[in-house]
Amino acid sequence: MIAASVIRDLQALLPASAVLTVREDVAPYASDGLSAYRCQPGVVVLPDTEAQVIAILRLCHAARVPVIARGAGTGLSGGALPREDAVLLGLAKFNRILRLDPLARTARVQPGVRNLAISEAAAPYGLYYAPDPSSQIACSIGGNVAENSGGVHCLKYGLTVNNVMRVRAVTMDGEALEIGSEALDSPGYDLLALMHGSEGMLAVITEVTVKLLAKPERAQVVLAAFDQVETAGAAVSAIIAGGILPAGLEMMDKPAIAAAEAFVHAGYPLDAAAILLVEVDGTNEEVSDAVLRVHDILAASGATEIRTANNEAERLKFWAGRKNAFPAVGRMSPDYYCMDGTIPRRALPAVLGGIADLSAQYGLRVANVFHAGDGNLHPLILYDASTPGELEKTEAFGAKILELCVAHGGTITGEHGVGVEKIDQMCVQFRPLELQAFHAVKAAFDPQGLLNPGKAVPSLHRCAELGAMHVHGGQLPHPELPRF
Amino acid sequence: MIAASVIRDLQALLPASAVLTVREDVAPYASDGLSAYRCQPGVVVLPDTEAQVIAILRLCHAARVPVIARGAGTGLSGGALPREDAVLLGLAKFNRILRLDPLARTARVQPGVRNLAISEAAAPYGLYYAPDPSSQIACSIGGNVAENSGGVHCLKYGLTVNNVMRVRAVTMDGEALEIGSEALDSPGYDLLALMHGSEGMLAVITEVTVKLLAKPERAQVVLAAFDQVETAGAAVSAIIAGGILPAGLEMMDKPAIAAAEAFVHAGYPLDAAAILLVEVDGTNEEVSDAVLRVHDILAASGATEIRTANNEAERLKFWAGRKNAFPAVGRMSPDYYCMDGTIPRRALPAVLGGIADLSAQYGLRVANVFHAGDGNLHPLILYDASTPGELEKTEAFGAKILELCVAHGGTITGEHGVGVEKIDQMCVQFRPLELQAFHAVKAAFDPQGLLNPGKAVPSLHRCAELGAMHVHGGQLPHPELPRF
């Protein structure tokens, strides 16, 4: 609970409509995209100027009240999960594009601007903003920075951190920092990278300057079918080894293909064990050349069928299956749980095998959809939340998948963040030493631990209670996870 | 001075040959590549195992003795400048390539391994390490991480931070951190980016895992002459706007052309006000296509002459002038001072004009050689150190150039770091707020301030004494620099 005096002080700072306290008003903020976790926020504030953000943070800092920043609420790891004793600071009103400079190819925007809205505003100049999380129609750029979001095209165009030049961010004590520059590199410690993926734990972002890219002249997609997942995995490595950097390189396994095909009729081969979608972009000549080379590599890698989209309509159809894979899987099962581990590309066959074994062991179906090019897996565990105990079993299965990723030299999250969802797996990923370094960095910005407490970085105490199930850098053999 | 007891303790830890105390033994360590600054180190230690590094740091931490890490000593901003009261920790003996994995395309190396040695070791597999500072034959990878080094090819292939996956680093209290992962992204705060460019202030690097890239099938260079520097600058923007990402995009002005031509007879047009060297790489087809497009853009941008290297020998000859520009300028003047500012590309004409004005004002000649594609200027100020007062005048001129870069939205360093050289300009680049954030990050790793004290980040007190000559983000008009 938040003291009535704090709420009165917030009401004095902000217009009446910007302070929500009534149960039905705050209810929509009770969860983000990880809707299995819910909590009523103590109060929701909706400022629309940086001065208000500063005032709110100073007030909360003085009163020692925790603050949780929230963008569009599309996050999948519970990074914006409220607390009853905390102020939920919604940034939805920060929705203006402040400046779009087509010559410098930059856009200065407020944090609540939707990812896709930036590309829409840049389109008249032939420009776009590259990172494209699948929630891009709804998710906001401030949240993208907080989670260092990726997307289908991040293999070629990088993560959010590679596409942002500057941010303004207000620390818990109400100071607005100017971070980054328009130059290639900025002197001093790399605070810009530090803000990316910090999950709202270091500062509240109030402005973001992103890079815009020229829209490629042409994009083309090649679809390849394989009769074994392992062969498909090897083809992924062969493409990269062949010096091709696809704009997208996606893989779907048999259950995912079946679900997608039943849903959008993309024309996927239903008998395939796995399909790859390889998109190349660039000038007309570059694309023609790359498509031929991709075709050759896929053929040499044992693809049982290779199709090239003949026109833009067919290209979009090929993608429609992949882009709708999550809702398609949703039709197969009352509920599904989307995991987000990352592994070195070479470990693809072994980890997929391990997931299949775990699926049998837990008695839960899995569909695999993933950014194969950068080793970012999205296993979807199918379950029924109305069956007692099945959610818990699903979460345990998911945790095992993440530990499997770590055991193969990967990480527990590719692009969805840690939040509350994967906080225990951080104990698997990191040793106490590295966790201590994280806590020290946190303390440099927020010594009282008031910004988004309990997210992203577990306490050493929590890890110790979990039995310090540490596997580091994949140096220990799968599947036995050591306990020490 | 370092207490005799500390030196005795160091001698007890290390073999006799690894602790240098005699004046003639420590003399070679008195400066790095910024040789105008010199200081005899109190003692030089040359460990060859991480365990020794840990023991040295623990000993110094307990005795409150500062430690300055040094790689190959090629740094140009005095980042490895010793102190009489500090231990100079040389990492030259850490010169082993620990593992080269051609399939995963990674190399795990010790920090003293030379930059070029990595590419040499990778060459049999058709691979190379992309960042190529001009000192790459001598500079070491640990120093590259500490300075976040770039090079001619960083426009396309990124800085060191974009090409390193993991580091091991020992903090001042002797704890070895494992930072980064082989995956695209790592959870937790981005300590990997934080280590890059931290100039030895946060931890001592003991191992680096770099990405290797496939050698492009072909590279080709186009040389273009312009009768105005401004036109050349506009052509740079036109190439990037045309969707071409050159592997290198370099510019030289008339004095630099004259010096280079007299030195290596590269065949440069001596009547040009500026030349551009545009290198494209990729597959044979891609390069053929890109060369034609570059040619068209250069012609449309008003180039007075365009030449394409007809063969590899001619390509290397075109580059020879650029690669030898610094020693070539060295033949024109007893001394020169190489600056390293970065500006947004659009500011090229204005900043070059400003440098010409300052040159007249200070009565010192300047040759401009730079990475035009990423706006990284290297103005070389010609002077004679034997003329009383000329070094001071040169340094004042150099400082003005950096302030000019900041006033145009640029930064005071592109790839050479801050070190001792540009520490006062950090007061120009940043407000006290951002400097406080840097100090807080420093304190998170090294609360006693024992690692490389006095470098990179100035104290607020120092900035206040300089008169807080703050220009931020280029929002204030050139040429009047505000004082407040």
Automatic annotation (TrEMBL), chains A, B:
> Which PROSITE patterns has this protein been placed in?
FAD_PCMH
| Keyword Flavoprotein attributed | yes
The Gene Ontology terms for molecular function here are: FAD binding; oxidoreductase activity
The coenzyme or cofactor needed here is: FAD
For this UniProt record, the keywords arranged alphabetically read as follows: FAD, Flavoprotein, Oxidoreductase
Q: Which PANTHER family match?
A: GLYCOLATE OXIDASE SUBUNIT GLCD
Query: By what name is this protein known?
Result: Glycolate oxidase subunit GlcD
Q: Which organism is it from?
A: Sulfuriferula plumbiphila
**Organism classification:** Bacteria, Pseudomonadati, Pseudomonadota, Betaproteobacteria, Nitrosomonadales
Encoding gene (name) = glcD
